[in-house]
Design a protein that fits this description.
By secondary structure, this protein is α/β, with parallel strands linked by helices. It has 11 helices and 5 strands, in the order βαβαβαβαβααααααα. It has a 5-stranded parallel β-sheet, sandwiched between helices. It is globular and about 50 Å long.
């Protein structure tokens, strides 16, 4: 089995040491590098080719949000999991919009952080529908009307079936659950999800969920 290549990014050396110790105990995870600031991330990614980056948000020079945006704009970008001390935070939401696959709190039990790395490595977002709603409600007063108009325009590029799948993704359903709900096969669901990502120029299912929420589809 090929180990998951992990890059740790945090400006606190004690946090990095704790994460390194925690992740080093997992046989299927290999720590390929560490960075103390977002400014170091792109060069390290080029050199170490990680599958997943565990990224602190608040750093002194280049923060994790900016580093995430830069990474997710790249071809063959690694998955990013944001590290934060806050459940509902504007910067967390911005990181998710930029393409982060989810976030974990710094006080999350070690086993759950390891599980989060494993999940995003295979394409599963680390974000529950409840947390998505909390984040969206946190930012509801910040340009919500503009976001809704823009989201509606983008959603209108989907056909009816793709729209149904997008809503189901936004409600946190797995591919198997979507298949059952919409009476289609799992491979067909995967095809629709891939087409939605391509049509809307999105990175992952989290972004589909956020766009569906912005467009008001989860209220219908």
């Amino acid at each position: 089995m090929t180990a998951i290549r992990l890059l740790l990014v945090d400006d606190d050396p004690l946090v990095r040491a704790g994460l390194s110790l925690m992740m080093g105990g997992a046989e299927d995870i290999e720590i390929v590098g560490e960075a103390a600031d977002g400014a170091e991330v792109e060069e390290l990614v080029d050199r170490t080719r990680p599958d997943v980056v565990l990224m602190d948000i608040r750093m002194p020079s280049v923060d994790g949000l900016t580093a995430t945006e830069r990474l997710r704009d790249r071809k063959d970008a690694p998955q990013v999991v944001v590290l934060t001390t806050f459940h509902a935070d504007e910067q967390v939401l911005r990181a998710l919009r930029a393409g982060a696959a989810g976030f974990v709190l710094k006080d999350t039990p070690p086993a759950e952080i390891v599980d989060a790395v494993r999940r995003v490595a295979v394409g599963d977002p680390v974000l529950s529908p409840t947390v998505t709603r909390q984040l969206m409600e946190h930012a509801v007063g910040s340009g919500a009307d503009t976001r809704r108009r823009h989201a509606r325009v983008r959603i209108d590029t989907l056909n009816d079936r793709e729209r149904e799948v997008a809503v189901a993704v936004g409600r946190g359903l797995s591919n198997a659950e979507i298949a059952t709900t919409l009476f289609m096969s799992v491979p067909t669901v995967k095809t629709h999800v891939s087409r939605i990502l391509a049509k809307l120029d999105l990175n992952n299912r989290v972004q589909i969920a956020l766009l569906a929420y912005d467009a008001g589809l989860l209220e219908e």
